[in-house]
């Protein structure tokens, strides 16, 4: 009777091991997939953080061109402002006496 119990327990352990094998295999595949995804995400993040020299030079060139255009706009606006101030001064100025005497 004791031999029969040992045999039954051994068979139960074998069937449990057979039933657990697919779940352990699936678990290990899932774990490998998850770790691969995490590692690839980390590599993509590192690649995104690093600028390539070409992109950096293009960005610097774009910034320089933008600054030049901005300085040209500022200079043009200052010239226009000075012309507007001159026109305001001449419009508020009293009439010239030579013109006033010539009309009388």
Strand content: under 5%
Amino-to-carboxy terminus distance:
147 Å
**How many β strands by DSSP?**
0
Order of helices and strands: HHH
Q: Count every helix, treating DSSP H or I runs of 4 or more residues as helices.
A: 3
Number of domains in the coordinates?
Answer: 2
* Helix content bin: over 70%
Low-confidence stretches: none
> By helix and strand content, what is the structural category?
mainly alpha
- Characterize the main sheet: none
| Mean pLDDT reading | 77
Q: Tell me the overall shape.
A: rod-shaped
Radius of gyration: 43 Å
Explain what you see.
The protein has about 100 residues and is an all-alpha fold. It has two domains: about 20-50; about 50-104. The chain contains three helices and no strands. The chain has helices spanning about 1-50, 55-90, 95-104. It is rod-shaped, with a radius of gyration of 43 Å. The chain starts with a helix and ends with a helix.
In short:
This protein is mainly α. It has helices at about 1-50, 55-90, 95-104.
Write the layout of secondary structure elements.
Layout (H helix, E strand, L loop, with lengths): L1 H48 L3 H40 L4 H7 L1
